[in-house]
Amino acid sequence: MKKPKFLLLLPFLLLTIAFIQVQVFEGAEKVVNTQEEQYYRVKDFEDVKKFDIHIHINTEEEFFMEQAQVDNFRFLDIIDDEMTFSQGYYGAHPEYHMYLHPEYPSYQDQIDARDHMLEKHPKLTFMGAHLGSLEWSLDELAKRLDKFPNMYVDLTRLSNLQLHTFNNRQKTRAFFIKYQDRLIYGTDSQINPSTNPESSKKSIHDRWLREWKFYVTDEKISLENFGTLEGLKLPTEVVDKIYAKNAIRLLGLQSW
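Above: the chain sequence. Below: its structure as tokens.
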């Protein structure tokens, strides 16, 4: 008896399927990649429309607005009145150091309370600042993004992201690709009055450009006290989402 012809095709089908599978986030999941990825260059910075979702503007001066227009940025201003949570502030007010107040809720207490609130309201759309206050662990952040499908986070902890990249670039890059619809670019910049507007504009531009290089290229980057790392070089589709599309969708804005 002749064997059915479709059995002869089976090995070739299996090889084809295996060939097009690409590992994502520590080999836990597989995705199909059927077309060549595209990438931005450093010189594309000004041409790409971008959104910084975490800015604190503490001045009515126009230098920041002018630079944002030049660099093709929109932004969300988060009002914080007079108090800022900087190292200098706590140096001047040591009475607010939390280790002095064991009677107050701990970090873990607050994270648990946040997660419990999201469990009670699964349809709530929520954005967690500073990588959802889980900047120290991509694994812990991934658990929340998996559990809460309406949770977004901003990327305002670049130093932590660069440290994750230094320790395991492949894992960090895969994290961005897997959760590309849930991550939103932000800097947490403080825009204060300036006696030298041109210098302030340059500082703002230089920061935005440095972070653009980290996300879109694989150039070498020096990480102070650690060494050098390579940028993530994310595909244009991912960059467009984290730099604009996700913010526009989350805030209900019209695209521009």
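The two ends are 66 Å apart (CA to CA).
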